[in-house]
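Translate structure to sequence.
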């Protein structure tokens, strides 16, 4: 499984593909597209294996960890390596940039075929702007698995859909009795922050020049009650410079009211101190494991709480519903959306945030560890 990704979405899909392959008993490994070039990874030929490429695209250009691969495709070495290789490509893009949407993934797919590669299925496309990329990927992956099984004359198992929903991690959350978040020592808070940064740089911020900084000034510029314009100054750490015109991305936190709603749903006190454990290698989240942390900080800064519930989350919740009608409704949402069309239509998109889904299906019994794992 080869991936190209800057912000982690394409790599998440690559991880799911890896898990699915291993679930079918295949020997599977994952590399960045550039590693194929720098480490001279050998591609399996013919029926010996399958190469799956999952990549994003930025203004038509390859992600940072696929630039060497893009150049390599035009070399004689690529022609020799790709001939007779069975492959499949899934692209992640954004239709707001219509002129360059899927430009790099399509180039990869067409070039691999022109060099003698054998496509197993048509290229899959995930529009990150639509909110349906996860569904598009699942459907593409179903078609790929079916094509692979048919190519080897294997029976298509009845439970194939079950294997295509990624198994979500379940954290073990231990409450520290009689401790409050405001009592956590400053040294512990700083250590937790550094650990979160290290994990982020290994996962969704890999390849990005991320840094921690202090906000030295943050003041309101307007007196209007319904508008806000703020003047913000950031003290850059040593070795970091900024010039007018540079892009500056900020990883923000979730609003207090959203965090408190989740804490109430999961039975966590607002000032709770917890220690979170998880089997090693089961998750790529940035949660500081095995440390005393404020439950509020975990939900505020380590997860995106306002994104729509994924099909995998809805499917997992369906198994936790005590009422058969609610379980069936959640399974329907996980498969095709409210109107059975594959699109989420009608009402506010907020109705499909996980907390809102739980409110709509009160018979679902989810523990704090399972609820955090679904995020």
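Result:
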């Amino acid at each position: 499984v080869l991936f190209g990704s800057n912000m982690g979405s394409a790599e998440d899909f690559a991880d799911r593909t890896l898990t699915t392959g291993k679930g079918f008993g295949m020997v599977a490994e994952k590399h960045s597209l550039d590693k194929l070039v720098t480490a001279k990874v050998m591609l399996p030929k013919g029926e010996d294996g399958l190469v799956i490429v999952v990549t994003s695209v930025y203004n038509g250009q390859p992600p940072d960890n696929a630039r060497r691969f893009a150049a390599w495709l035009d070399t004689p070495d690529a022609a020799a390596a790709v001939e007779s290789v069975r492959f499949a490509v899934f692209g992640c893009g954004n239709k707001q940039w219509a002129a360059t949407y899927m430009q790099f993934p399509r180039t990869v797919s067409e070039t691999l075929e022109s060099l003698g590669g054998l496509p197993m299925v048509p290229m899959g496309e995930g529009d990150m702007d639509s909110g349906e990329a996860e569904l598009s990927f699942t459907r593409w992956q179903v078609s790929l698995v079916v094509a692979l099984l048919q190519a080897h004359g294997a029976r298509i198992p009845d439970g194939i859909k079950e294997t295509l929903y990624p198994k979500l991690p379940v954290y073990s959350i231990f409450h520290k009795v009689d401790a409050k978040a405001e009592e956590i020592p400053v040294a512990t808070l700083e250590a937790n922050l550094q650990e979160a940064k290290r994990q982020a740089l290994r996962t969704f911020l890999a390849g990005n020049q991320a840094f921690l900084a202090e906000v030295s000034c943050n003041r309101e510029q307007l007196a209007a009650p319904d508008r806000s314009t703020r003047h913000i100054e950031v003290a850059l750490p040593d070795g970091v410079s900024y010039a007018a015109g540079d892009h500056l991305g900020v990883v923000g936190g979730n609003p207090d009211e959203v965090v408190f709603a989740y804490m109430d749903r999961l039975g966590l006190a607002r000032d709770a101190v917890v220690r979170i454990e998880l089997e090693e290698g089961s998750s790529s989240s940035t949660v500081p494991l095995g440390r005393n942390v404020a439950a509020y900080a975990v939900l505020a800064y380590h997860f995106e709480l306002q994104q729509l519930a994924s099909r995998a989350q809805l499917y997992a919740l369906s198994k936790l519903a005590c009422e058969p009608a609610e379980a069936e409704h959640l399974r329907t949402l996980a498969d095709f959306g409210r109107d059975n069309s594959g699109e989420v239509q009608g009402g506010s998109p907020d109705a499909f945030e996980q907390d809102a889904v739980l409110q709509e299906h009160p018979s679902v019994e989810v523990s704090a560890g399972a609820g955090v794992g679904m995020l």
